[in-house]
Design a protein that fits this description.
- The complex is a heterodimer of chains A (137) and B (140).
- Chain A is of the alpha+beta class and 137 residues long.
- Chain A is built from 4 helices and 5 strands.
- Chain A has a 5-stranded mixed sheet with strand order 3-1-2-4-5.
- Chain B is of the alpha+beta class.
- In chain B, strands 3-1-2-4-5 form a 5-stranded mixed sheet.
- In chain B, a hairpin with a 5-residue loop joins strand 4 (117-124) and strand 5 (130-133).
- The chains are: A alpha+beta (137), B alpha+beta (140).
- Strand 5 of chain A pairs antiparallel with strand 1 (4-17) of chain B.
Chain lengths: 137, 140
């Protein structure tokens, strides 16, 4: 059993806002992230899969195929988009780094042939990232 | 079921230290600690990476309030450790401030953060040296 990690990047806008709260409460909890004009990040996604090495190819998964899956399922949907306004899962869920990691897990799980999704790591900035291992997904 | 996510945050501080143990002879100290035993000390730009686990709050979408964690880190870590001589800090008066010991001390410090469960502390002393501590997993 071996772990393999592939990175991808996407640049997106978002803001944090709970419609059930007053403007003051949103400001108190989310600070400048509550600016409804949005702001953005260059996100880095790391997807780790676990599997056995195919003795014929020496691969756990075909990296080109994994890249295509990440592109189709995540990057093409998130990149240069406003997460709150243009990505369905964030119409009702706040696009925090934690929720983005969970959403990407749900987009990818079961779609990678011959390997088990082990971890989704999303960097919002180099000094802030969230990991999701599928617990409670 | 509520998803459980892990959130990691990196903090940077610059500090000096000297690796020296009074119980050892000067020769033995030089032998064990090499250039880190230089009596005048030396310094590093440290990176402390802390990881917390918890349910993603259904209302805020967060494992913890980053403002609260940053405030905690400011008070407990950065105000004390940044631009300091580690050997003069209470935690290292009787303990050598090796980065292993710094890592364990930062575990004790961040384990007191009340709003989420600490999973690991990772300290980078230089780009090539880093240390991880996951707390004690069995009773000592």
């Amino acid at each position: 059993m071996i772990l393999l990690t592939r990175k991808a990047e996407f640049s997106s806008a978002h803001f944090y806002w709970n419609p059930a709260w007053s403007e003051a409460e949103n400001q108190r909890v989310f600070g400048k992230c509550a600016n409804r004009q949005g702001h953005g990040h260059n996100y880095t996604l790391e997807v780790t899969v676990e599997g056995n090495i195919d003795p014929a190819s020496g691969f756990v998964v075909d990296l080109k195929l994994l890249k295509e899956i990440l592109e189709r399922e995540v990057v093409s949907v998130y990149d240069h988009r406003h997460l709150n306004h243009e990505v369905p899962e964030f119409s009702t869920t706040i696009p925090t780094t934690e929720n983005i990691a969970v959403a990407i897990w749900r987009r990818l799980v079961g779609k990678i042939p011959n390997a088990r999704l082990q971890r989704v790591r999303v960097y919002e900035m180099p000094d802030l990232f969230a990991d999701f291992y599928g617990e409670g997904a | 079921m509520t998803p459980i996510a892990h959130l990691s945050r990196r903090y940077r501080f610059s500090a000096s230290h000297r690796l020296h143990v009074d119980a050892l002879s000067p020769e033995r100290n030089r032998e064990v600690f090499g250039k880190c035993n230089n009596p005048h000390g030396h310094g590093h730009n440290y990176i402390a990476q802390v990881t917390f686990a918890g349910p993603v709050d259904a209302v805020t979408g967060m494992v913890l309030d980053l403002g609260e964690l940053d405030g905690f880190a400011r008070r407990e870590l950065l105000d004390v450790y940044d631009q300091a001589n580690l050997n003069t800090l209470p935690a290292f008066l009787d303990e050598v401030p090796s980065t292993e010991n710094v890592c364990v001390e930062l575990w004790r410090l961040f384990n007191a953060f009340p709003h989420a469960t600490l999973r690991s502390v990772h300290v980078e002393e230089t780009g090539n040296n880093s240390f991880d501590y996951f707390g004690e997993t069995s009773p000592s």
